[in-house]
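Input chain follows. Return structure tokens only.
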Amino acid sequence: MLSTLREDHFHLYEHKLIFQSFLRVVGKSIHADYISIKSDLDGNGTLEDAGGDKTLSDIASYCQNSQSWRRYFPQLEEARYRRSIEMLGGDMIHKARDRELKLEELKNWSETSVMRADYMIDDSEKLSIKTVVERALDNIESTMRGEPKIGIRTGLVPVDDLLMFGMRGGDMIVLAARPAVGKTSAAMQIAEHVALDAQKRVLIFSLEMTSVSLMERMIRSRARVRAADILAQSITKYQKESLSKAYAEVRDSHILCDDTSGKSIGYIKAVSRRAHQKEPLDLIIIDYLQLLRGDSKRSKDNRVNEVEEISGGIKELAKTLRVPVLVLAQLNRDPEKRGGRPSLSDLKGSGAIEQDADMVMILHCDEGDAKNHTQHPTVDFIVAKHREGPTGIAPMSFDKSITRFEISSSNGREN
């Protein structure tokens, strides 16, 4: 009972005082009854405030069975939730009349507040360790039978070999690289596979490129047609057919794209929730983290605090919606200064990104290829963090002309 009942389940001030007294008495390992509660209230000088002897006597006369609280608890929970909604309604009226509050801020606040109120509903099933253990055992037994519960696959075979269980609901997956290495291309190829091949619903936030540019790139990549050939008007009949087919596949897919720039993490969460409520999402992609803004006043003090808020907000979004979130991120310049492969410490902005992420993949282009500006460089997908499996390196060949990763002749290797 103590783990379920809370003070805010009681509306009247007198009943709150009695419940506080009950907690004090039980905390002293004393049996809670009329005499012990009255003695505690009297000793704390709150007996009269709690309604006096008559109120205690009335309550005691109604409680003939210590287990009867279970029968009445659903009514208490419903009343508490209704009060929270009523208070929220008053706050919403006040906020709506505040003309200094921007519309976007009002939307974010209202959606977050409603969501917070919704999570105030008691969910014993969610908290029950029995339910959690049963699900965990089911996962283990499925894996032992050779039928592991796999999340979303990237479609990049060497990478999927390392990410044994795929991208699962609730996972925050970071894809990091220096500029022009191919992180947006990799993210769009993953989106293409999930939406077109697996026929799932993908929401893309593009803070750098426009939606039109992204879809144009996806169509060309899917058709394997170079932009240079289109510009030179030298494409073949077969290429035209490939472009038409790719266009139709992308058009009929379940891809949603928001290219609004300069937005906050609150905006990302609000749009994602609305889209998910309309029809469940299977994957969210954010390109990229360092272009987002924080919402709190604390985040405006310095950039580290802001990145911490953004990273924590992305992880919260993934867990709340139970959808994998693939977020792109920039690396700092340290790898270029010291040479060699980048590491987790090179994530730009804050160590919170490394801490919050369930998986971190870092793209690294071979130094020789980078210097020679080859059109088919070998790019290593370095799985630097992986909560559910091994780390390692998956080399892939990047065809810059069609912005597409292909299987490299090299084999995946461990760090």
